[in-house]
Write a structure and sequence with these properties.
Elements: H1 5-10, E1 16-20, E2 23-28, E3 33-37, H2 40-60, H3 79-133, H4 136-164, H5 167-170
Antiparallel strand pairs: 1-2, 2-3
Length: 172
Amino acid sequence: MEKNLEYYKKLSYDVVLKKKGDCFVLFIPDLCCMGEDASLGKAYEKLELEKEKYFQEMIASGSQLYIREPEAIKLKRSNLVNNLLPFLIKLLIIGLIGVVGMQVAVTRIKSAEHKISQKALGAVKDLNNKFKSMSPERKEEIRMELRETVQNVKPFVDEIKVLLEDEHKRKP
């Protein structure tokens, strides 16, 4: 298709409309063409004449390659998206770091839990072996010490029990 004056005149450009006092100002940003008049219709006619004059001058000078044609689809991001995009990217990065941190923490906690349970089982087995190898006199001594300790601790345990009971049980 030959790009002549008729081709360029049929292109649809975005037009900016502004009210300046009692005049209408129409402007095509892609071509830097402007039409101004008190009547909107006359302002549009002036804009069309200015646009045609621009195309004629560009064609006459052989500069058709430099005429900006309107884009088929312009994807304009709003200022809100432009302002939020860095925040959302930072939020995503911080979230990923948090997830990785939580994963590492959970792994370490599970590992520590396993080690603690193994040590507790080992301690119980060792204690059981010690009791088996103890003399009956020593076993009786330990039993008596435990009874005395339980009797000394019992008042404190009773006070804590009252705090832990259900409300239904505490009502008079």
